[in-house]
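User: Can you write out an input/output pair for a complex, sequences first and structure second?

Assistant: Here is one pair. Inputs:
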Amino acid sequence: MLVDTKHIPAYNLEKAVKNPERGVKIRRKILENNLKKRESLINLPYRNYDYSKVLGACCENVIGYIPVPIGVAGPLLVDDKKYYIPMATTEGCLIASTNRGCRAIEKSGVKSRLISDGMTRAPVVRFPSIVKASDAVTWIKDTDNFAALKLSFDSTSRFAKLQKISTHIAGRYLFIRFVAETGDAMGMNMISKGTECCLHALQRHFPEMEILSLSGNVCTDKKPSAINWLQNRGKSVVCECIISSEVVASVLKTTTKALIDLNISKNMVGSAIAGSIGGFNAHAANIVTAIFIATGQDAAQNISSSNCMTIMEPWGQNGEDLYVSCTMPSIEIGTIGGGTILPAQSACLDMLGVRGPHEDIPGANAKQLARIVCASVVAGEISLMAALASGHLVKSHLKYNRSYSGKSALGLGLSCGSVGSCDR
Amino acid sequence: MLVDTKHIPAYNLEKAVKNPERGVKIRRKILENNLKKRESLINLPYRNYDYSKVLGACCENVIGYIPVPIGVAGPLLVDDKKYYIPMATTEGCLIASTNRGCRAIEKSGVKSRLISDGMTRAPVVRFPSIVKASDAVTWIKDTDNFAALKLSFDSTSRFAKLQKISTHIAGRYLFIRFVAETGDAMGMNMISKGTECCLHALQRHFPEMEILSLSGNVCTDKKPSAINWLQNRGKSVVCECIISSEVVASVLKTTTKALIDLNISKNMVGSAIAGSIGGFNAHAANIVTAIFIATGQDAAQNISSSNCMTIMEPWGQNGEDLYVSCTMPSIEIGTIGGGTILPAQSACLDMLGVRGPHEDIPGANAKQLARIVCASVVAGEISLMAALASGHLVKSHLKYNRSYSGKSALGLGLSCGSVGSCDR
Amino acid sequence: MLVDTKHIPAYNLEKAVKNPERGVKIRRKILENNLKKRESLINLPYRNYDYSKVLGACCENVIGYIPVPIGVAGPLLVDDKKYYIPMATTEGCLIASTNRGCRAIEKSGVKSRLISDGMTRAPVVRFPSIVKASDAVTWIKDTDNFAALKLSFDSTSRFAKLQKISTHIAGRYLFIRFVAETGDAMGMNMISKGTECCLHALQRHFPEMEILSLSGNVCTDKKPSAINWLQNRGKSVVCECIISSEVVASVLKTTTKALIDLNISKNMVGSAIAGSIGGFNAHAANIVTAIFIATGQDAAQNISSSNCMTIMEPWGQNGEDLYVSCTMPSIEIGTIGGGTILPAQSACLDMLGVRGPHEDIPGANAKQLARIVCASVVAGEISLMAALASGHLVKSHLKYNRSYSGKSALGLGLSCGSVGSCDR
Amino acid sequence: MLVDTKHIPAYNLEKAVKNPERGVKIRRKILENNLKKRESLINLPYRNYDYSKVLGACCENVIGYIPVPIGVAGPLLVDDKKYYIPMATTEGCLIASTNRGCRAIEKSGVKSRLISDGMTRAPVVRFPSIVKASDAVTWIKDTDNFAALKLSFDSTSRFAKLQKISTHIAGRYLFIRFVAETGDAMGMNMISKGTECCLHALQRHFPEMEILSLSGNVCTDKKPSAINWLQNRGKSVVCECIISSEVVASVLKTTTKALIDLNISKNMVGSAIAGSIGGFNAHAANIVTAIFIATGQDAAQNISSSNCMTIMEPWGQNGEDLYVSCTMPSIEIGTIGGGTILPAQSACLDMLGVRGPHEDIPGANAKQLARIVCASVVAGEISLMAALASGHLVKSHLKYNRSYSGKSALGLGLSCGSVGSCDR
């Protein structure tokens, strides 16, 4: 009633009523009054949830929560350690398929390497002329000036470490891309703070410089871009594994030759024909997104984070074993901040042994999580590619107009069984 | 125990124990035994959830669910109707900001148009030579042959309607992109079925044709690609709205000029510099992803679905009002199938009046949902752009080394207040 | 003198003095007076050239001509006919290398197929709202309306045949891409005329439509673009050839395995890493540009025309023969109009048997020229790839600090000899 | 006869007969015997040309030369100096139009800045595993190791100066992009030499490293790529100029508002819709190509060299003046080597005062030429954009079915007059 009469702002309900859940309940009531079908919300759960960590941090105008089913794939052997991969998804067969990939990798395991680590933020500024803009480029490139900027930047956080600044000029506009390590945080807030600090320092030297925006899209956050593919963002990780011809046959139900053939025609030629930049894989995004939702990452960051090139090659003496690598240059990920602080999401990080800040080495948890994501993508790629490679062989023997089973495999119309059972 | 001794396959627990929740509970036990920190799962909820709709459809090896906080933005006026937008997210300030955008649009409302509707699937096939491959291209282009293929395709489902086939040749490889309406379903399964049927028909005419894979990445699903940007995928939607200079000042705390200026430098020049294809916007992916998770879409499909170009122009007699449009050519979305069948997700569709299949016009619900997504993106774009445009003005007056508030605005280091309160 | 005193406009000299060469001579005099080094022009030839075909057609403010050295590669066997390929270039070893490629193909020959033929022009128009813009999209998509537009379009030229119109919306902006056959002309002028005619027809139905420009860059002419790669422009051609393992060894000095290996790592993976759209080849542009200059094409159109994907595969029973294909979707080319009318350029078309309009089948000459270009690219690709593949083997045996020969091979620091002699 | 009987290899004719022209003549004879139409070559000139500089350097199997008409545009005021721009082209109206642009710039002049200078070469190498590949990345990033590599690199030429090495990993493949200043040479040969030297040094540390190719397409040479757009290649140049509203009206026959409007809809929105990376301009390639052919550059390098973003903004107190900038990040150009050594081409460099190596500052000539190219592009852009902007206004008043004049304007169907006469 007090809300209706505007005595309490709706967004502040939780504070007003002290008990967050009661606040949520009242907001649902108000919302129901405004909906055509008042009973719509009945199936949207809201009870028994600790809203204290959500409020003021993760969500506003809260009306409950969406339960996203979570399953587990694995164990996945990464650098000689076993991991059970939590995946939150509503896509049937995704976990079963990834799980099959894990089984294929079981013996040899995945090797991972972190190639670089640096979150980015690129403000756009404007000068009165290209002359001034190019002066600024020169100034920024100077080693001493960079050192001064780094001092400013690094002072804004205990974990922020400015690594590099790259400049991109467009007439009198300048995009200044700051690259920094950000400890175990995904780092967008941290780097924004440091960047803003540097901008003010820069403005002292170039008073005519206008700061148009803290983000000028050259960062690039949550949009497809060549720059993240080429110059990385967040963690750049590479993984590889070798699968014996026996396992290819017994677990993946196909041959090394068929897989390599398909990898070239689909993941190389196909993606090239489609005009893809960064999408040289079968379905990295599926695995990335499921782990991101499970572990409280920003799910919208799967756009750059799913950039991946999958390479398959013949291996071993007679070339019948399979070598697979996945290269993922821009995994934006963290183990502190954002959704990682919520209880369930935190539990999933715990499952992987990477919850919160690393005790000894800042950043080590986030880096390890990035490696796990990439290794899981390897498992996912192997399994779907195998399903596709064997698919037509199997299917061509079936009468076509049989009724499809209700179950689908990754949207591909394959029955779930063909991607391997969930059994270990 | 029976699982440990392999008498019951782990993936089949639910069936074996009859009660799905008990199955989940046992699986958690088994998993806990394998984890280093056995207590990891304590905070991962699993009780009081109806697993019957999950099993065999949305998830395997289930161990519970991830609660993603959900809030509401709006009302958002779209084509003269009010909508309350459910957004599931863990990104602080996203809903508050979108809500502010809704308020800015309140008076004039958003107009939407659906430009096209067609899910796609592009298998890769191979011929012995370019001669045969080009014969196939010619054959497919023939009107009568297309009609025959359409007959096959459309027979596979009551809702599937083949619209177009485009061919992309690469040497002796051929990528055949099927485009079809799929009713209220997002449509990947439906179109895969129809595509497979056509492939078999095609194979009868071209027995030398090898089907390498039902998906050759020219579809393109869940990977960045120019083809979806240029030739659409799923729903292609455009929205526009006009905001008076008064509202720009009072609600958005900035000016039309500053917004247009920023839109050019960031969303046009910036994205062009970054080498983006399809990412000419500020943060469409944030809104798309939050609605996708809330309404049970395939969250990994936000990659193409977030393709968006935001255009801002001066409007009105003196050019001080603001015209904004968002163009989104590839929203992959549905109101039946996949995660949409789960109770909470279904409730969110209900909130928007688009749950399940449309009673009279197949596809009308999915189309309407796509329009709502695009309109919500308009709200999100306006608000973030305004926050960025006014940001530096405001911030430059602040002493720099003040302590940052814990709250962030969309990862931009702005305090949440600056993007507008949640109050209506 | 009369020019100096402005009695005769400098650009009209030729007309004023009747004799074009004298006009050119006078212009050179005037120019020399303005140059710091008056003797600069001495080595720029201008005598003994028939300017009558240049004036008012190909060049203005003429001061002479640039002699570009021309050599010949071949014979190149294309679809069982021998061609001698004229190449105008200043890049050392390019012709020698292409010639070696021709020799490698000598026995089996190249097979070519023309997949499609259609020049494009895409004006940008603007409507007062997305509502009107989407109405226009609907109107254009209507079969009857298309027929009416086609009637208008085709009336503007005897050779123009409108094939298709595709629309690309961006808010209230609309890009309308007209695709038409244009006989033996490259066709830009012809299609511009037809397009303009259609725009006026369209404007009668949509009086509020503003025509912003006859070209809105979605054409796309002389700029990199995904649309030409995906939807073709001009001629779309595919070529293939098979080379026996013996020839790979004897002529190309390498192995099938090494070539395929390199093709994947360089032309597939490398170009994908570089963020290329359409550049999945080694040096198609070299061959395209040299033939374009020789045959009077618009050399700036090599940008789209050089789009090419080179695929190499093992062939034959033991997989030791080499299968190569080149796919070139956007060769913008003609045998009439532009520079093709000049005597020397015309002679080169004559060498290939494709000078001027085809006598019986309009367009047949231009199409044949496109096939020859693509076949020549095959020769060029094979030879450079072989040079690169064998390069490191050979070079690693050399002492490094030897003095390099002055001659380079395609800018790769290889000595010219290694790419094969010019000898036949 | 000796050739026919294979006593003298055809490619060696010039040496054998001592007199190069006689060699060319004999080769033409042989060729004529092989052609269907023996008289084809009659109009292809070959006399009175000094072949001594061509042989062994620029062309093989020479049969004469192609005269490309050359005209002059200008004077163009760049950084307060006047230049007459030599343009070799067969495209009608191109020079007239560029000339009009020069006139529009006459008063204010163009300002230019060189942002960076560095030719690139990126070999592809392969390791037995990602572990070794990432070790190599780490090794190369080390400051001391870079210094050692630089020592090797710089020793291979007096002018080569290694600036930077960037690494791009793809599984066990590594693309190592060397960036170096190369004096006044375009630099491909120079950098290839240095790169090869470094590779051998690297191989000593990583004996398991396989050198697959000196070029792995990440360079990227003569192919569209995001990497050259983002990380530059050759010279990166920015130019700007301001044109008063009076000149916009009197010379360009349009308004500042119309130009800015068109620049956004065509060069920004249009190119973004087309999926262009680097093609945010109207026709930079036309100007680049014409100057490249005139000055003996490698014309196939216009692909990256034409990358350009044109920005137009309102200027002056009332915003009615026009501000234009062109940003060209990858101009691959030189004043020594390749075709620059030929007499006519050399004369054109002389016209611009940048022939050969700069006497005092190595590289200064090539840099200056790059600035002139970019400034000329500004002139070209202004003029064509003006023609397009005014086009529809003018044309809509014409009766449509009038006969077109034979003359075209840049393929746009505009009569040549509309782009401004050649008169100064």
